[in-house]
Each structure stands twice: as structure tokens, then as C-alpha cells.
Amino acid sequence: MKILAIIPARGGSKGVPGKNIKLLGDKPLIAHSILQALESKLITKTIVSTDYQEIANVALHYNANVPFIRPQQLANDTASSIDVVMHAIAFLENNGEFFDAVCLLQPTAPFREKGFIDKAISSFINSNSDALVSVLAVPHELNPHWVFKSNEDGLLKIATGEKEIIKRRQDLPKAFYRDGSIYLTKIETIKKGSFYGNSLSYIESNPSMYVNIDTIEDWNKAQQLLPTILSQI
Description:
The strands form 3 sheets. A 6-stranded mixed beta sheet has the order 4-1-5-9-6-10, sandwiched between helices. Strands 2-3 form a two-stranded antiparallel ribbon. Helices cover 29% and strands 21% of the residues. The chain is of the alpha/beta class. The chain has 6 helices and 10 strands, in the order E-E-E-H-E-H-H-E-H-E-E-E-E-H-E-H. The chain has helices at 29-39, 53-61, 81-94, 116-127, 187-190, 216-232; strands at residues 3-8, 23-24, 27-28, 45-49, 101-104, 131-137, 148-150, 156-158, 176-186, 200-204. The radius of gyration is 19 Å and the shape is globular. A hairpin with a 2-residue loop joins strand 2 (23-24) and strand 3.
């Protein structure tokens, strides 16, 4: 299977200005994901999709491909990830490059265990699912079977629609949330406008490595985690 890794990185970050090229440890944030992609034995090609020439220059320095500068209409706050990915696919196909699936690696989730990308790709291929996402377990106290929502009368009801709450923690079904580290999707599914398709498999990330950088507080957490992360990879 030919896998295209896409690392999206626009220049207009507001939560942490310039975060994609801001130094996290001894290298820019985006470089962490680029180097992990280039270490993969199963990724066919790694590209960075950006609207910002300085980000492109950093990506090229770390040996990623930057085949285009992303159009401005795909670089604002309302641009969706699926549109960014579809643009990249269309650009490459118009230039004679075709792939079977996309591996989306968000630079804002810079910490992945060594070999985790290839483990995810292997699981994706073996599952024959439309897509795979990396996830973390939902803490039991936030399990949707224990979460309430308000109805039209301002009264609470169980979010899952059940009449009776599950009383024992041990009886709760497992629940997961996307951690933003890896999205793998077949090209044919993306062209239908979806990252998930009709069959979605998953791989669990290492919770001790979790950070998704959107705010200064997230950035500070990443800096605090970095020494521990470096000792594990």
C-alpha cells in the first residue's frame, strides 16, 4: 500500500504564535513529526502542506517535501482538514503521483513512541477498514454512560439514552477519544469527504506522551514532558 504522509502546518496560529517553527527542545515543533514520518518504513512519501514560506523552508531543511504553497483560502480559521488533504491529493495526482491512503500527522501532537506510526499503518492494513485513528481511553468518570445532558425541560438524562445508569465502574464499556496523533484513511474514502468512512479502526497511544498543543499552557506542558519523552525514544 502506498501511503502519503501529510503534515499540515499553517502560519497563522493564534494560541501559540509561530508555534510550528517555534523550538521545542533543540528543533522546531514541526520537525518532530517530519523526522518521525521519515523514520517510517511504510510511508511512501512525506509532504508538508503550508501557506507560509518560512515553515516551508524549515520543512525542506528537515528533508520533507513541500510540493506547493497552500492557497490562502485553505489557510484561515474556517478551513477544514479534509479540504487541506483533498487539495494535496489533487495536486499530486495532477502531477502523476497516486497513493492508496493518507497518514495525517498533526505537528501539534509531536510525541509518538518509536515505531508507533508503522504499528498504526500495519494495523490499518490488516484491518482492511476505511480508516484508523489513534485514541486514548476516556477516564471512567467521564464515560458517556455516566455523562448527563440537559433536555428541553432543563432536566438531566443519561447522554447515551439509557433509562438506568450503569452502577459499577467495572461494567462500563470502554470508551475512547481521538488524541490527534495519527489519522489514516484510504484515498477513496477521503474523496467522499470523510476521514472515517463506514469502518473505523483504532490504535491506543501512550497516555504518558499525550499533549496536543493549542495554547501556551499546552506548550509549557510539552516542554515539561520533553526530557521524559527523549529518554523513552
